[in-house]
Design brief:
The protein is built from 11 helices and 4 strands; from the N terminus they run ββββααααααααααα. The longest helix is centred in the first third of the chain and has 66 residues, at about 115-180. The protein has about 525 residues and is mainly α.
């Protein structure tokens, strides 16, 4: 289909099989540096076709839309129909020319006809006209279903791209909020703020590039399919009218109109066979792509040609984003716990005053559970800590009522102002922490694996089945109208001979009757 239109990366391997060079990825799945990668030929058996560009040897490169030999081999599936179109156009054109020459050179028409030949040509005419009508109906239904299948598939691809773009955008907003929030004068360190600025630029670049390219490609593809659908509808309607009027004119013996439709049909049938060949190529490409998707899902870490349908972000961005998100989360939780341990849970002296002392009292506040250790490895919460999910609810009970001077006049460990600032940090930490699985999914391409599995399981069958309907419908219409053209000429000639024979017999009987009366 649709959608799969960019170059795949290349890889060079030394004699020992180790990777020595990998071309830089921009927005696609990356190979894990610590794992030795291997090459997987996608849809190898299905794409084993003769390649005209390689001396008609069998192509063995598998599914690869950037390889001219793949297109050459898959194009060979359309060759029979294109050859039929060429032979039809030349041979039937020469036959029409020969008929015209015979009609011009013959001085008198022949009389007599075969009743068997007349009935046989009439039956064939009815049969082929019926086949043309059936083919037009199949073509119309098939193109509608194929258009719906392609639209649904493109919508799914765009929705997945939008999901990535929105999540990366949300993550960028969380990082921005992490720079702004603070608890009194305790803000993030400047090096973390600079790191966040750099990371935001990377995320913004990836998100905008990812979303805009996917939307543009989908719109271009959808526009093409809309044009193709309209063309199919017009072709189906026109061929239906051509078959009907050709049948009627042939039955009525209107040779002039029959020959006019024959000339039009002669050109249209050639074009229809060419279009059938293109649809056969499209059907095979769609089927190859679906098989390639399924095989890639089973082997997601292999080096394949299927990397641009729904590309992952590059590995450097995913790794940097994941690491920076963990660092920011760790630092935010550390800052909040520092305030809890050094301010909120300390009964300071009144002479110190806010913000260190604000008459805090009552039960001690529980610390916030940090999901990461100082080395950014995962950490389990200990007893007495509150996690990021319920910290806002638990700490609400530790607020005090404050006087105009900012001093608590009721039991509590934090003022409403400090509570809001702490909640801002908790919300940012919660958001960054929850985006970690999404970032890991982009890194190891589990996101792509799920997307391809969804397309294969829920969209590929419709694409393959309905493209086959369109291909069969076009071929049936082309063949039926082609044979109908021949029957139009034959039956119109037989009917014309029948009429001339009847007229000749009447004239002869009248002439015989006049001679008898004279005697």
């Amino acid at each position: 289909m649709f959608v799969f239109v960019s170059k795949c990366f290349t890889e060079q391997v030394d004699s020992d099989g180790e990777n020595v060079e990998v071309v830089q990825w921009t927005t696609r799945r990356s190979l894990a540096e610590t794992v030795r990668n291997w090459t997987l030929i996608l849809a190898e058996e299905r794409t084993r076709r003769k390649d005209p560009f390689d001396g008609f040897n069998h192509y063995d490169g598998g599914w690869n839309i950037s390889d001219k030999h793949y297109w050459s081999s898959v194009g060979s599936t359309a060759a029979p129909l294109l050859i039929i179109a060429g032979f039809w156009f030349i041979l039937f054109g020469l036959s029409l020319l020969l008929i015209c020459c015979c009609c011009c050179c013959r001085r008198r028409e022949r009389y007599g006809y075969s009743r068997i030949a007349f009935v046989f040509s009439l039956n064939l005419l009815v049969l082929f006209t019926t086949a043309a009508i059936v083919g037009c109906i199949l073509l119309y239904i098939g193109q509608g279903k194929f258009h719906n299948s392609t639209t649904n598939t493109l919508d799914y691809v765009v929705n997945q791209a939008n999901t990535v773009t929105e999540k990366l955008g949300d993550l960028s907003e969380y990082l921005s909020a992490a720079k702004r929030v603070g608890v009194d004068q305790d803000f993030l360190l400047s090096d973390f703020q600079n790191g966040i600025d750099k990371l935001q630029l990377m995320i913004h670049s990836v998100a905008s590039n990812f979303g805009s390219k996917t939307k543009k490609k989908s719109k271009d593809i959808q526009h093409v399919f809309n044009i193709v659908r309209l063309a199919f509808i017009i072709v189906a309607a026109f061929m239906l009218l051509l078959a009907f009027f050709g049948f009627v004119f042939s039955i009525l013996g209107l040779r002039g109109l029959v020959y006019f439709l024959v000339i039009i049909g002669w050109i249209l049938v050639a074009g229809m066979f060419i279009l059938s060949g293109i649809l056969a190529l499209l059907h095979n490409v769609v089927s190859d792509t679906c098989v390639a998707m399924d095989e890639w899902v089973q082997n997601p870490t292999a080096y394949t040609a299927l990397d641009d349908l729904l590309p992952c972000v590059d590995n450097a961005t995913a790794q940097e984003t994941l690491l920076r998100s963990k660092e920011v989360t760790y630092q935010l939780v550390r800052v909040v716990n520092t305030i809890i341990s050094n301010v909120s849970n300390v009964n300071g002296l009144p002479v110190v005053g806010p913000p260190i002392f604000f008459n805090q009292s009552g039960p001690l506040m529980p610390a916030l559970c940090n999901p990461f250790n100082s080395d950014l490895t995962d950490r389990q919460c200990v007893a007495g800590e509150v996690d990021l999910n319920n910290a806002t609810v638990v700490w609400k009970n530790y607020r005090c009522q404050v006087s105009p001077s900012g001093i608590c006049n009721s039991p509590g460990r934090i003022t409403p102002t400090i509570y809001k600032a702490m909640m801002a940090k908790v919300n940012v930490s919660f958001g960054l922490y929850n985006y970690s699985p999404f970032l890991v999914g982009l890194q190891d391409c589990s996101f792509m694996r799920e997307a391809f599995a969804e397309i294969y399981n829920n969209h590929c069958f419709g694409l393959r089945q309905h493209s086959k309907w369109v291909y069969i419908g076009l071929t049936l219409v082309s063949s039926a109208v082609m044979l109908s053209l021949i029957c139009w000429v034959i039956h119109a000639r037989d009917r014309r001979q029948l009429q001339r024979t009847i007229q000749f017999d009447q004239e002869r009987r009248q002439s015989s009757g006049g001679d008898d009366r004279e005697r």
